[in-house]
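Structure first, sequence second, as always.
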């Protein structure tokens, strides 16, 4: 396996990736905003809109890092519940004032109902920053944080309605194993949503992106996080096995045959995803 210009073993690659995220965890969010000019927020919003979770959805966000997808999921489900409750309140004839008062008292407007989201990440530091952020932003209900490897998930079979992985699959050493695990933990009919960089075929755009990645990103890393090498490595890591550009995909587990997660990881993304954003 190539990591930058060197050939490294799977174990070395896993270790390097771990170190990169351990080093950058505290500055990860601010770097994400500056490196993408905030565009990653839009991509993540689109992912959650595509998911369109209903109250009661059980979501697993793998490689969830500092919780961006989980927080968006919570906001989305809350807003669906608020709309439902507002509709109920509009028809006052069906609700007594006592019931309306109780709804407010129980803070039902902000409740997630039966929905839950589990953020799973291999990196303790990223999870730590995520938990602090959740506390600060007031997210706690229905949210849990689990240390775990996408290639060997610590969850039962057929458990989740939705599995998401945002800018995470490129970091996983054995993508075939991660996909098998996604398949295993999803309920039949559950959905797999992936947000990831992909190839840019336009040579001019590709050149510009390379310039940005190799010249600008490490400088931003040094200025903002005081760490040149981790951000230089992030780009090298992104080069394998995927390249640049952003894509997302949704697949329903029922459509996902065994063949799909056994194909070679260098081509599985194109073959697996049925809908592109
Ligand atoms: N999903 C978050 C987001 O979009 O902001 C974080 C993405 S960050 C680029 C990649 C994350 O993948 C890191 O938090 C890293 O620790 C995690 N990661 C890398 N390898 C992993 C693995 N094998 N299993 C689970 N998480 C992994």
């Amino acid at each position: 396996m190539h990591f930058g210009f060197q050939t490294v073993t799977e174990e070395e690659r896993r270790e390097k990736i771990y170190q990169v995220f351990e080093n950058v965890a505290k500055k990860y969010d601010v770097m994400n905003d500056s490196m993408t000019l905030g565009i990653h927020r839009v991509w993540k919003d689109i992912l959650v809109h595509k998911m369109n979770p209903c109250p009661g959805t059980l979501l697993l966000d793998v490689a969830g890092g500092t919780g961006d997808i989980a927080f968006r999921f919570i906001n989305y489900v809350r807003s669906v519940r608020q709309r439902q409750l507002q509709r109920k309140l509009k028809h006052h004839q069906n609700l007594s004032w006592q019931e309306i008062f109780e709804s407010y008292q129980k803070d039902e407007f902000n409740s997630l109902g039966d929905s839950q989201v589990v953020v799973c990440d291999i990196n303790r530091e990223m999870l730590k920053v995520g938990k602090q952020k959740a506390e600060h932003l007031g997210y706690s209900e229905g949210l849990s944080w689990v240390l775990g490897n996408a290639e060997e998930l610590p969850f039962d079979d057929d458990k989740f309605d939705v599995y998401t992985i945002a800018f995470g699959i490129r970091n996983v050493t054995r993508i075939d194993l991660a996909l098998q695990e996604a398949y295993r933990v999803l309920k039949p009919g559950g959905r797999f949503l992936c947000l990831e960089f992909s190839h840019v075929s336009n040579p001019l755009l590709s050149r510009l992106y390379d310039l940005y990645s190799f010249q600008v990103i490490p400088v931003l890393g040094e200025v903002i996080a005081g760490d040149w090498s981790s951000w230089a490595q992030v780009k090298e890591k992104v080069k394998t096995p995927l390249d640049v550009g952003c894509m997302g995909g949704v697949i329903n587990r029922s459509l996902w045959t065994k063949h799909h997660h056994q194909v070679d990881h260098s081509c599985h993304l194109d073959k697996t995803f049925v809908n592109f954003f």
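Margin note: The mean pLDDT is 78.
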